[in-house]
């Protein structure tokens, strides 16, 4: 029984694929490029092209029976219209369980006011399908992917969150939860776990951890919500999504992410931000 991993070239997709393959579970990585590391089967797949969905279920020997689908949406903003045709096709092809990578923020809870991945969560639930929805808080890896340029070139982290504390979660912990959702679902405390990391830190505290690990001073600089929205727009994000992300940051400053530690659905991961920084400190070398 094979697992189809959509957006398989992403951080969590590849980490999950490695865990599954190492445990003897067949994996099929679906990505826009169709290019994956050696040792993995792949198929070209594009969320913007529903005609590509069928190929994911006709990949050949070893993948005749796709029983699990890991859903993640990279570069997709109107998510439910893209997801529904694949989910419908997967059900017809006998998929046993869907594992959705969602998020911990507002709007991602299932219900009438949900949107984005929250709307997909709501749809899976309304259809009575077997699913697990992973709801991680902010990725530790974003300190390299999003803030890395500023840290390496200017020794600065810019955010709108000077005091809000966040239990940043690592990709490896998210991948482990996804693996359990497929292979050992009984290990999960519920089917909608909120995933957090082992540390609870503010952005200035992260800057202090970087300073200690890198041996040079890294400073946190507070910017306005308007400045942040402009940055997101410059990245090419739609205006509504840019404004939503800026609002998520505003809520984080007011303690929204820290509150997850009091939620009975929460799973605390093994990887802490300080540990992750020390392990990856060479990647933050000054330019």
Question: In a nutshell, what does this entry contain?
Answer:
InterPro entries: Ergot_Alk_Oxidoreductase, NAD(P)-bd_dom_sf, NmrA-like. This is NmrA-like domain-containing protein. The chain is of the alpha/beta class and 287 residues long.
Number of strands: 12
Strand content: 15-25%
> At CATH's second level, what is the architecture of the largest domain?
3-Layer(aba) Sandwich
In CATH terms, what is the fold-level topology of the largest domain?
Answer: Rossmann fold
Number of domains: 2
Q: For the record, what CATH class of the largest domain applies?
A: Alpha Beta
- The N- and C-terminal alpha carbons lie at a distance of 47 Å
Query: How many separate helices?
Result: 10
Q: Please state the average pLDDT score.
A: 93
Topology pattern, helix = H, strand = E:
EHEEEHEHEHHEEHEEHEHHEH
How would you classify the helix and strand content by structural class? Answer: alpha/beta
Q: Shape from CA axes?
A: globular
- Secondary structure: helix percent: 25-40%
How would a crystallographer describe the biggest sheet? 8 strands, parallel
Poorly predicted regions are none
Looking across the biggest beta sheet, what order are the strands in?
3-2-1-4-5-6-9-12
Radius of gyration: 19 Å
The CATH superfamily name of the largest domain is NAD(P)-binding Rossmann-like Domain
